[in-house]
């Protein structure tokens, strides 16, 4: 067990419910600072304020799990997962067999992601503290959901910062099939939970894909950064005449092809294009009624935000040039370090440079199964704008 005493004044964010304690906020620590462990958090006067899990290697030294005097044990995780489950039972992710069951801080379980794909669960244990308690979490998930199998895809930047190696494999039950079929709003999609991006599918965009249902029939649509083709499928079902799907990844385009075919939609080589979307948008001069622009995160650190702004501006400028008058642009940023406000300013700058008049139809965000803690606004990573683009 570790005891951490905070510098004077640094207890305030914690008392207000933020779960991250940075190394710079720590005055002194007693106990084993080398191994991840349950951590008691005190203010500078020695008053107990919270309990969490430590990460010896990360700048974020402690992630708080509770502000009450309750043990962090197997039953604690069971209760938190039950809370998360209760939200999903009320919310209409019911129209899908795949949804996020635990969204880290948004479900007050920092470091833990659990996605449900049909009968299987796919988990990410992102921090040293939560990694050390994996067995409890797997037990709680098995007990509460009785999945066919629990699979792990723990990898990526947060784990690197924790100096944790990637960890992939079956944690309980059966191994998921190479291609796991899910349903979403009446579509059937195949998900590659073994090698696909994130845990296999972009569940966070589900509600935004549904926004494409309001296209006019006969449209020509560009799905830029299409990954496994989900936006493209929705565009076809809304009556699009042709959807051009662009991604730089061969495996992503193969997934897109299969998913379009699986739903009886056109999937010819001339519409599935392996290209760098930046060059594609700039080089080609064909125009579209609707463009979806969903790039990967361009800013992984705060310091990258300025460079990322240039990337978003470029993409949006060239997208504006390619949208027909009266057309629609759905544009996204999934960078945690680019705020909704900054993103809107970047898109505004692109509209001005492209000399287009643009109206915001709707602000878009992550699906309802990706809650954001009010105390942890950093969790609101996905922001989007549905824009009407005029002359
Ligand atoms: N819209 C998708 C998710 C997009 S994720 C969905 O709803 O499922 C971002 C995608 O961008 C990934 O598939 C990645 O392969 C692709 N990508 C990354 N860099 C790219 C580039 N420079 N040009 C084209 N695609 C790129």
Percent in strands: 25-35%
- Cα separation of the termini: 64 Å
Q: In total, how many beta strands?
A: 20
Please state the structural category.
alpha/beta
- What's the gyration radius in Å? 22 Å
Binned, the helix content reads: 25-40%
**Ranges with pLDDT <50 over ≥5 residues?**
none
Number of helices: 11
Q: Specify the overall morphology.
A: globular
Overall mean confidence score, pLDDT: 95
Please state how the strands of the largest beta sheet are arranged side by side.
16-15-14-17-18-20-19
Q: Could you describe the largest sheet, including whether it forms a barrel? A: 7 strands, mixed
Bound small molecules, deduplicated: S-adenosyl-L-homocysteine
How is this structure best described in words?
- The protein has 391 residues and is an alpha/beta fold.
- It has helices spanning 11-15, 74-90, 128-132, 134-145, 157-161, 206-211, 230-237, 250-262, 277-283, 305-322, 340-353, and strands at 2-6, 20-22, 26-31, 38-42, 48-54, 60-66, 98-103, 112-117, 120-125, 149-154, 167-173, 180-184, 187-191, 220-224, 242-247, 272-274, 288-293, 323-333, 357-365, 383-390.
- The chain has a seven-stranded mixed sheet with strand order 16-15-14-17-18-20-19, with helices on both faces. A six-stranded mixed sheet has the order 2-6-5-4-1-3. A five-stranded mixed sheet has the order 7-8-9-10-11.
- S-adenosyl-L-homocysteine (SAH) is lined by residues 197, 202, 205, 225-228, 230-231, 246-249, 252, 276-278, 294, 296.
């Amino acid at each position: 067990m570790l005891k951490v005493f905070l510098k004077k004044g640094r207890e305030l964010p914690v008392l207000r419910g933020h779960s991250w304690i940075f190394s710079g906020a720590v005055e002194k620590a007693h106990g084993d600072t080398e191994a991840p462990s349950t951590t008691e958090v005190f203010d500078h006067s020695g008053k107990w304020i919270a309990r969490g899990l430590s990460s010896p290697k990360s700048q974020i030294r402690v992630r708080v799990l509770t502000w009450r005097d309750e043990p962090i044990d197997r039953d604690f995780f069971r209760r938190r997962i039950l809370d998360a489950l209760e939200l999903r039972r009320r919310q209409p992710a019911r129209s899908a067999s795949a949804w996020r069951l635990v969204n880290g801080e948004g479900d007050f379980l920092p470091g833990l992601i659990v996605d449900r794909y049909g009968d299987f669960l796919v988990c990410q244990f992102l921090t040293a503290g939560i990694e050390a308690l994996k067995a409890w979490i797997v037990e709680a998930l098995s007990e509460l959901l009785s999945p066919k199998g629990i699979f792990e895809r723990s990898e990526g930047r947060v784990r690197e910062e924790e100096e944790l190696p990637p960890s992939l494999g079956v944690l309980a039950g059966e191994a998921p099939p190479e291609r796991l079929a899910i349903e979403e709003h009446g579509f059937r999609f195949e998900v590659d939970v073994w090698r696909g991006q994130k845990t296999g599918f972009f569940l966070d965009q589900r509600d935004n894909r549904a926004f494409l249902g309001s296209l006019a029939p006969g449209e020509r649509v560009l799905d830029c950064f299409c990954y496994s083709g989900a936006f493209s499928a929705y565009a076809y079902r809304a009556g699009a005449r042709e959807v051009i799907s662009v991604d730089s990844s061969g495996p992503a385009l193969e997934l897109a092809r299969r998913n379009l075919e699986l739903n009886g939609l056109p999937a010819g080589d001339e519409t599935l294009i392996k290209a760098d979307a930046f060059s594609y948008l700039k080089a080609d001069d064909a125009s579209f009624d609707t463009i979806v622009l969903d790039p990967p995160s361009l800013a992984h650190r705060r310091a990258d935000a300025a460079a990322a702004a240039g990337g978003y501006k470029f993409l949006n400028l060239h997208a504006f040039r390619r949208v027909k008058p009266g057309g629609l642009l759905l544009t996204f940023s999934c960078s945690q370090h680019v705020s909704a406000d900054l993103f809107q300013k970047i898109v505004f700058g692109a509209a001005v440079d492209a000399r287009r008049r643009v109206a915001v139809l709707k602000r878009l965000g992550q699906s309802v199964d990706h809650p954001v803690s009010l105390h942890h606004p950093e969790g609101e990573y996905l922001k989007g704008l549905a824009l009407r683009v005029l002359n």
